[in-house]
Amino acid sequence: MAGNTPRGIRKRVNAAGQPRYQVRYLIRDATSTSGWVETSATFATLREAKAFKAERDNEAALGARRFDPRLGRIPLSRVWDQYSASKRPAVSAKTWSGYTQHWQVRIRPQFGHIPVDEISRTSVQQYVDALTVGPWAKVSTLRLLRSILEVAREDGRIHRNPAHGVSAGRIPARERHRYLTAPEVAALAGACKDQGDVVTILAYTGLRWSELVGLRVGDIDLATRRLHVRRAAPEVEGRIIIGPPKTGPPNAPCPSLGSSSTHSPHASLAVSPTSQPSPHLPAQCSDPTTGADTPTGHKRYA
After folding, report:
1. Kindly report the CA angle at 38 between 77 and 111, in degrees rounded to 5?
2. Which of 112, 114, 190, 225 could be cross-linked to 257 through a Cys-Cys bond (beta carbons 3.0 to 4.6 Å apart)?
3. Least confident of 10-24, 144-158, 194-208
4. Which domains does the chain possess?
5. CA distance 215 to 202
6. β 226-227/9-13 pair status
7. Burial track 151-185 (b if 16+ CB lie within 10 A, e otherwise)
8. What is the pTM of this model?
């Protein structure tokens, strides 16, 4: 032991004259006689070396699987495949499309071929700083990269996540939402002509666009003046994908179309329980009395 260097940590000087701290420890190896083989890890600071050694000592004391640096030699693209297998079924098609875009366009060209144990915090920060995208796209890209690297850490491929502590920069404050008054909604609906009902329903029910597209005739209850949101139909990569709504139980009804619980404080949408179809509704939705779904597809308006 030299100076204040703890036992089990060896201080060395590299070719550039900079100090380095080497930690030697045991890992399992089925090919060796004893079942163990000695290996080492080198760090730029004594603090990092101490933290690493403490983790390895705790693993040995608990009898846990010891950190094996050989596991970190796989490229990040292999970890992405593992991340995809577990994450894709848990998110919506639209969310997964966004993840795929961040990976294909931004992350894979930079880090996909690099072994995960060679990705440093400095390289991640430099990469994020150099991204020429908007602030929210930058945040989303960093979050995805951090999640992928966390899979590698949990699998023991790296002993820490290099994306932790990386900053995406300052996020500008969003402007406050401006809500239209009832006369403004009416004027906008009138200007939209045959699509005016779309504007009116969106304004007074708070439906997402994908939830409106997913509505069928059987979801409209004129007797109780309610719309039942049972599915969403977002457009993903040019295709309409049918799935459950983003939030809430799939059969949760929207606020009553004539109640004071609608989003506008100025007026409410009156829906008359009549068998006469609205002249603004698309043809495939023009029978509000049957209560049956009309399998004519979902509308997409430019």
Report:
1. 15
2. 225
3. 194-208
4. 9-67 (no CATH), 73-154 (1.10.150), 182-285 (no CATH)
5. 12
6. unpaired
7. bbbeebbbbebbbeebebeeeeeeeeeeeeeeeeb
8. 0.55
